[in-house]
Amino acid sequence: MRAVRGSQRRWRPVPPLFFVAVALFAGCGGDGGETTAATPTPPANSGHGGEGRQRLPAGDGQGGVRLQKVGDFEEPLYVVQPPGDDRDLFVVEKAGRVQVVRDGERLQEPFLDLSGQVSTGSEQGLLSLAFAPDYRSSGLVYVDYTDLNGDTRVVEYRRSRSNRLVADPGSARQVLSVDQPYPNHNGGLLLFGPAEGSVRNAAAGLLYIGLGDGGSEDDPHRTGQDLSTLLGKILRIDPRPSGDRPYSVPNSNPFVERPGARPEIYSYGLRNPWRFSFDPRTGALAIGDVGQNEAEEVDLVARGAGRGANFGWSAYEGFDRFNTDQRAPGAVPPVLVYGHDAGCSITGGLVARDRTLPSLYSRYVYGDFCAGELRSFTAEPGHRATDDRALGLEVPSLSSFGTDNAGHMYVTSLEGPVVRLVAAD
User: If we measure between CA atoms, which residue out of 143, 145, 202, 187 comes closest to residue 167?
Assistant: First the structure.
C-alpha cells in the first residue's frame, strides 16, 4: 500500500516480457443498506460455503454484484471474523483500534485499543489481526503493528474472561519484533494458513507474516534476495511459546537447514506483500506485491508451492529486470502485471468462494489503491491471467479485502467505508 492518493487511471495490463522460469451499519449480512450495483448476470446455484456440494463453475466476472455498506470507520485496513462466530465482525483501524460490529451495529467499546502504542505516519499503523484457529477455546488473537519507533511488532493478546468482546490489555505477549529502516513497505498481514502434514501445530495452524523489503525505494539494502534478513519475505511460524522462546519454527520450513538463512522464511523476493491470501478450497497462495516505478503484480501458486518460492524482487519488477546486481534464478513470475497508467499500488485480494456470487466464483478479486476499481480473473496458479476484467464497481482509496466465516467478501476504504459484496437484485 502507498501513502499517496491518486486519480483513477485507464487500465492497461503490461504486456508479457521475458522472465526467468515460471486484494451505517445497515445490517451486516443483511439485504438492506446503501448499495451500488454492477450489471447483473444470470444467477447460478445459490448459497455459500458447502464445498462438499456440487462445485460451481468459474464465474465470468461480469456483474451480478453490488456493494452493501457495513459502516463508516476511521481509516479501516482490515476485516476479519473469529472462527466459530458468525455474529461478530471485527474491523481494524489504522490508528490502533479494533472495532466490533454485532448484528449490523458497531459496539461502543472497541475489542482492542492500541492507539497510544502505534505509529501512524506513511504506511504505518495497526495493520492486521488474526484469530487463532482454536480461538473459541484459547481466546488468543494476534496483531501486527508499527510501534512508536516505526518498527514491526507481532503481539499476542488473550480475550477477556469477563467480556468475550474485549481483549485483555494486560495479556500482551510480544511474539516477534523486526526493526524497520524506513516508514514504508511494512507489509503487515497476519494469516493462519492451511495445516501441513503432521507438524506439531497442524491442529492449531501456522501463522504467516508478511514483511516488506524495509522501505525507501529500489531495495537499497538488497533485502529481497537476502535470506539472512526477515525483510522482503513471508514468514511462517508457530506463534505459541516454545521453552524460553516466544515462538517456534516448523521443521517443514524451507530454510531450516540452510546456514546463514533465517528459518522463519517461507517465501522471499517480495517488495511489499501488503495483502496475500489462501484460497479456502484449494489452499493456493495469492500475493498482491506492491511495485516500484512501473508495475504492480499478483503472484499465484498452488498449495504448498510458496514454500521456498522466490518471487524475484529486486532482481525483477513484474516481468522486467530491475536491480542488475541482483540475481533470482528460478524465480516464479507473476500471473498478472499492470502498469502505472492504470493505478499506483495494488491491493491484493481473495479467491471468491461465496456461492451467492456465481459471477465471481473461483476468480481472484482485487483492486488498486488509486484506481479503486474492483477487478477479477480466473484463479489458476502458475498460469498467466487471460480474462482480467473490471466488475463495474469502485471503492475509493481501496485498502484491503476480508472475509467472514461464510465466505462473504468485504472491502475497506481508507476514507472510512467498509462494504460487503452481495448479489445484485
Answer: 143
Which pTM value belongs to this model? 0.89
CA distance 312 to 301: 14
Cβ atoms 123, 152 nearer than 8 A: no
- pLDDT(96) > 50: yes
Closest CA to 364 of 294, 295, 303, 277: 277
Q: Look at residues 159, 157, 151 and name the one whose alpha carbon lies nearest to residue 127.
A: 151
CA-atom Rg of the chain in angstroms: 20
Q: Are 81 and 90 in contact (CB under 8 A)?
A: yes
Residue 232 CB neighbour total at 10 angstroms: 31
Tens digit of each residue's pLDDT (9 = 90 or more) over 122-152: 999 999 999 999 999 999 999 999 999 999 9
Strands 275-278 and 373-378 turn out to be unpaired
DSSP type of residue 248: B
Q: pLDDT tens across 166-210, in order?
A: 999 999 999 999 999 999 999 999 999 986 554 444 445 899 999
Adjacent-strand bridge partners of 106: 101
- Sketch out the chain's domains with CATH numbers: 35-423 (2.120.10.30)
DSSP 8-state code for residue 242:
B
